[in-house]
From TrEMBL, chain A:
<dbReference type="InterPro" id="IPR039420">
    <property type="entry name" value="WalR-like"/>
</dbReference>
<dbReference type="Pfam" id="PF00486">
    <property type="entry name" value="Trans_reg_C"/>
</dbReference>
<protein>
    <submittedName>
        <fullName>DNA-binding response OmpR family regulator</fullName>
    </submittedName>
</protein>
<dbReference type="InterPro" id="IPR036388">
    <property type="entry name" value="WH-like_DNA-bd_sf"/>
</dbReference>
<dbReference type="InterPro" id="IPR001789">
    <property type="entry name" value="Sig_transdc_resp-reg_receiver"/>
</dbReference>
<dbReference type="InterPro" id="IPR011006">
    <property type="entry name" value="CheY-like_superfamily"/>
</dbReference>
<dbReference type="Pfam" id="PF00072">
    <property type="entry name" value="Response_reg"/>
</dbReference>
<keyword id="KW-0805">Transcription regulation</keyword>
<keyword id="KW-0238">DNA-binding</keyword>
From TrEMBL, chain B:
<dbReference type="InterPro" id="IPR036890">
    <property type="entry name" value="HATPase_C_sf"/>
</dbReference>
<keyword id="KW-0812">Transmembrane</keyword>
<keyword id="KW-0808">Transferase</keyword>
<dbReference type="Pfam" id="PF02518">
    <property type="entry name" value="HATPase_c"/>
</dbReference>
<feature type="domain" description="Histidine kinase">
    <location>
        <begin position="217"/>
        <end position="409"/>
    </location>
</feature>
<keyword id="KW-0472">Membrane</keyword>
<keyword id="KW-1133">Transmembrane helix</keyword>
<dbReference type="InterPro" id="IPR003661">
    <property type="entry name" value="HisK_dim/P_dom"/>
</dbReference>
<keyword id="KW-0597">Phosphoprotein</keyword>
């Protein structure tokens, strides 16, 4: 899976690409419009992450020329502007998602993965992690072949974990993933805990290994290590 | 009091006083002139009479028929040589009193001193005075009315640019791009005034714009470094070798940057609402949206063991940009959950006229009228930035909705009405 990050803020581009590489993607970065334009001309990418404000051009133009060449490439816009018009325009010219800065890397990662899943297999793919099997199309979760009945948010939480295996997820990023950006209450962090507790219990009941680890109170980690 | 009414009133009192005075003075002058004339003629007649006496030394009443001359014996002491008096006499033909001016003097007729009185009727001259006075009064009144009318008309025209400027100023909205349009009147003072206003308007709009742009640009520019901090912190916490103290430090940095991001987004949103950057209004059923949002927050509500009551949910419909309706509902619901105590209640009451969301909760620390101010926090910990209600208020004021807050019996109620 090849991902191109078009972002002029070098530090941010680095962080994104490091995170992506750790997640098993092949990741390249471009800091300018020109560089990005050349890269999309020369190589094929599964997903392109585009910042709208580039020093020498507009991200929209880049998306347009990209869509002319290869329509299967997924596009995620990252922008400092939280404007509805931009989102609509982005969707109109063929982008798949829109993230407003500042965002969580784990969120971006989850979106990229979900986008690639949708694009490549039209959503008819199964996510497997050891004994856990998730069917995104029907939103069903199986543990060792047994159906685990999860609530809507618990399902979303599990999927978020599965998109970010072996990564420390902050409580805030989980809360925002589940309830959207507007969630701004201290209670939300406690409720994240209660949801994780429930998810854990339901998975353990079906004989699943306990993959969820609490990391010092800053967040949670899903995985074996 | 209106400017024109005031000047008219002053003008009217002043000119009436002047006209009254002028009328009286005129009357007196005419009267003096006429008396002078009559007296002169009486003196001439006295001379004629003395001339006659000198020749005839006798007086027959047949002479001087018209000018009544009365010769009578002296009664009482002899006074000054001659004097004028006013008298009234009964007319010979008509039974009425007519005014006369008389000259009394003493003459020796046939060796005997007699009192001689020569009279002259004033009836004609009095009529003359009356007519002259009447004509003058009529003229003055006409003049008064005329100038009054004319003055009203002319000052209405003269002050027209002033009123025009006033009404334009009233309609001037500095938040709009349109500059202050003012005429160029003939009158220098008004032109100067308009010029001053125009410059002031331009300056205000310019300042407003730059302030707006500054807020927007600053907020935008802040987003990217914030994204950077967030990303780096996220990477940092992936390292397994962190000690607990280090994690705590990182956690604090992370919290602070999240809060700043939230604050910044809130301020940006406020600036955008103020700048009317949300353009397309849709008809939105706020009741439905609120009910959905309450459903969406089910886990939160359940977690805090809150009880939700939906009362009388006839839809309350508003015209709002969808994004703002979403924000409005989010903030209202978040507020009702956040400021609730455990096992509290949330009540939604909706009529076509207004929608009320009430929640149980602790008493307010700050005064209720300051609740909608920016950065007004009710001490809900570091995660709150205190912009939620300010945003609600801003949305309502910009889209002609009323927002009211009432508190009582441990209930906090927010009502939106159109």
């Amino acid at each position: 899976m090849k991902v191109l990050v078009v972002e002029d803020e070098k530090g941010l581009a680095e962080s994104i690409s490091e995170y992506m590489i750790k997640e098993g993607f092949v990741c390249e970065t471009a800091g300018t419009f020109l560089e990005a334009d050349q890269r999309i001309y020369l190589y094929d990418y599964d997903c392109v992450i585009v910042d709208l404000n580039l020093p020498d051009g507009n991200g929209f133009q880049l998306i347009q020329s990209l869509k002319k060449m290869l329509t299967t490439t997924g596009v995620i816009i990252i922008s400092a502007r939280n404007a509805l018009e931009d989102k609509i325009k982005g969707l109109e010219i063929g982008s798949d998602d829109y993230l407003t800065k500042p965002f969580h890397l784990s969120e971006l990662n989850a979106r990229v993965k979900s986008l690639i899943r949708r694009r490549n297999f039209s959503g008819h793919t199964e996510i497997e992690f050891h004994e856990i099997l998730v069917q995104p199309a029907s939103r069903k979760v199986y543990v060792k072949g047994q159906l685990a009945v999860l609530s809507r948010k618990e399902y979303d939480l599990l999927l978020y974990f599965l998109s970010n295996v072996d990564v420390v997820l902050t409580k805030a990023s989980i809360a925002e993933h589940l309830w959207g950006d507007n969630i701004d209450s201290v209670d939300s962090l406690d409720i994240v805990y209660s949801h994780i507790k429930n998810l854990r219990r339901k998975l353990l009941e079906k004989g699943c290994t306990d993959y969820v680890r609490s990391v010092y109170g800053i967040g949670y980690k899903f995985g074996l290590s | 009091m209106k400017l024109l009414t005031k000047t008219n009133r002053i003008y009217l009192t002043f000119s009436t006083a002047i006209y009254l005075f002028a009328g009286l003075a005129f009357y007196q002058v005419i009267k003096i002139l006429i008396y002078d004339e009559v007296e002169n003629r009486l003196k001439v007649e006295k001379r004629d009479f003395e001339q006659y006496l000198k020749i005839h030394d006798n007086w027959s009443s047949g002479y001087f028929v018209e000018n009544k001359i009365e010769v009578s014996p002296v009664t009482g002491p002899i006074q000054a040589a001659e004097f004028f008096t006013d008298t009234l006499m009964r007319s010979r033909y008509e039974d009425e009193l007519t005014p006369f001016r008389q000259l009394t003097f003493y003459a020796t007729i046939g060796g005997v001193v007699r009192e001689v009185t020569i009279r002259k009727s004033l009836i004609q001259t009095f009529r003359l005075i009356e007519i002259i006075t009447a004509t003058m009064v009529v003229c003055l009144v006409l003049l008064l009315i005329g100038t009054f009318w004319f003055q009203g008309k002319s000052s209405g025209r003269i002050w027209h640019p002033f009123y025009e400027t006033l009404s334009r100023m009233k309609n001037f909205d500095l938040t709009h791009e349109k500059p202050l349009q003012l005429d160029k009147p003939e009158i220098d003072e008004f032109e100067e005034l308009n010029e001053v206003f125009r410059k002031m308007g331009e300056k205000m709009q310019h300042d407003y714009r730059s302030l707006k742009e500054f807020t927007e640009n600053a907020s935008h520019e802040i987003q990217t470094p914030l994204a950077l901090i967030n990303a780096k912190v996220e990477q940092l916490i992936q390292h397994a070798k962190l000690s607990e103290t280090q994690t705590h430090l990182i956690e604090d940095i992370y919290q602070a940057s999240r809060r700043m991001a939230r604050l910044n987004q809130g301020l940006l949103l406020l600036a955008k609402i103020e700048n009317h950057q949300f353009t397309t209004n849709h008809t939105i059923n706020l009741t439905e949206l609120l009910v959905n949002k309450l459903g969406d927050m089910e886990e939160m509500i359940h977690y805090k063991q809150l009880e939700v009551q939906l009362e009388n949910d006839t839809p309350f419909v508003v015209e709002l940009p969808p994004a703002l309706a979403e924000t409005l509902v989010n903030n209202l619901v978040n507020n009702a959950i956040k400021h609730n105590h455990a096992q509290g209640q949330i009540r939604l009451h909706s009529t076509p006229q207004q929608i009320c969301l009430s929640n149980t909760g602790h008493a307010l620390i700050s005064p209720p009228e300051r609740l909608f101010e920016r950065f007004k926090k009710e001490g809900t910990g570091p995660d709150s930035v205190g912009l939620g209600l300010a945003i609600i208020k801003e949305i309502c004021t910009n889209y002609n909705l009323q927002i009211n807050y009432t508190v009582g019996d441990g209930w906090h109620q927010f009502c939106i009405s159109s």
